[in-house]
Design brief:
mainly alpha, 217 residues
């Protein structure tokens, strides 16, 4: 139990340390339509960090020390940063556009159909970005292959992905609603730990067999 708690705390520190502007803003800046777009833009650094954290969780050993974990995280972050940041920037730009469209349509009450369609697109995009980080942590693939494999996994596991995204967004909404920074920061590590163990079963044997030759060691 203590090992799990230590892992969660370590994950939490990594996320906050590599995304200080985002977590400072989430903790202390009031949520409005304008600041929501800022939050989305600042979240670009989360997904490269997630990629390395997912790899870290996969290769962690009981004999490892916190110093070993930090070394492993830095090693894999350096290995994957180009692809991770390419995916993160592309996904964040799309997320900004969709978020702006959602806020615009909601403010003007133009069309409830378009509003719901935009909201669903945002949920799908967040799910695909998380899956892209997870796939990149496992396989040495081209960016196009990472995206297509993420789409493949998402379509094959829609209920699970909907749950993962709902929990992520729900935790953000609830902790932001309390306006208690300590609570917001505390749930970050729990959220990522929970997401990893829900994403882990998605790489079923068939998928592993197909991509086994390009798996990261």
């Amino acid at each position: 139990m203590m090992e799990v708690v230590l892992k969660i705390l370590f994950i939490q520190l990594l996320l906050v340390a590599t995304n200080i502007p985002l977590f400072f803003s989430l903790a202390f800046v009031r949520l409005t339509a304008g600041t929501l777009l800022v939050f989305v833009a600042l979240s670009v650094g989360v997904f490269p960090t997630l990629t390395s954290i997912f790899t870290l969780l996969r290769v962690m050993k009981k004999s490892d020390t916190v110093k070993d974990w930090l070394h492993i995280f830095g090693q894999y972050y350096a290995r994957d940063w180009k692809k991770a940041w390419s995916l993160a920037v592309s996904g964040t730009v799309l997320l900004l556009v969709l978020t702006y469209d959602f806020l615009y349509v909601n403010a003007l009450h133009i069309s409830s159909v378009f509003l719901y369609a935009t909201a669903i697109a945002i949920v799908i995009l967040i799910g695909l970005m998380m899956l892209s980080s997870y796939v990149l942590s496992l396989y040495d693939l081209t960016l196009r292959s990472i995206v297509w494999d993420s789409v493949y996994l998402f379509i094959g596991h829609i209920p699970r992905m909907a749950l993962i995204v709902a929990v992520n967004l729900g935790i953000i909404a609830l902790t932001k609603g309390t306006n208690w920074p300590i609570l917001q920061l505390t749930f970050v590590g729990i959220d990522v730990f929970f997401s990893y163990y829900l994403l882990k079963p998605l790489t079923h044997q068939k998928f592993v067999d197909e991509k086994g030759s390009v798996t990261h060691d």
